[in-house]
Amino acid sequence: xxxxxxxxxxxxxxxxxxxxxxxxxxxxxxxxxxxxxxxxxxxxxxxxxxxxxxxxxxxxxxxxxxxxxxxxxxxxxxxxxxxxxxxxxxxxxxxxxxxxxxxxxxxxxxxxxxxxxxxxxxxxxxxxxxxxxxxxxxx
Length: 139
Prior knowledge:
This protein has helices at about 20-30, 55-70, 80-85, 90-95, and strands at about 1-10, 20, 35-40, 50-55, 100-105, 110, 115-120, 130-139. By secondary structure, it is α+β, with helices and mostly antiparallel strands. The strands form 2 sheets. Strands 1-8-3-5-6 form a 5-stranded antiparallel beta sheet, with helices on one face. A hairpin with a 2-residue loop joins strand 5 and strand 6.
């Protein structure tokens, strides 16, 4: 059993941006030389998230709208009151969605559903430089 770690970087432009990182993760898997196992995709930080979605225009519109209904930007957050950075909602959203995702792989291919892509969600109130960690365990 081997453990390999790879990192790739993203530059985001704005709050609510959803970036398809499936190809980046597959490239990390391919270059690892591992055939079968499981991988973790993880974003360090408290205002970004990793999940899966069908990466199509309707859902790219619906998902941020759903977040606005569930965790609105325009209500009082103690975090914002304390730090005056306007991103209390960003931290709450990131906590609900989570910073990481586990994905099995077989024959050096991600075992995703037909319409399932891995995405990074920028939840902070501005664009940021992000590092995404892919850690693979397998043989």
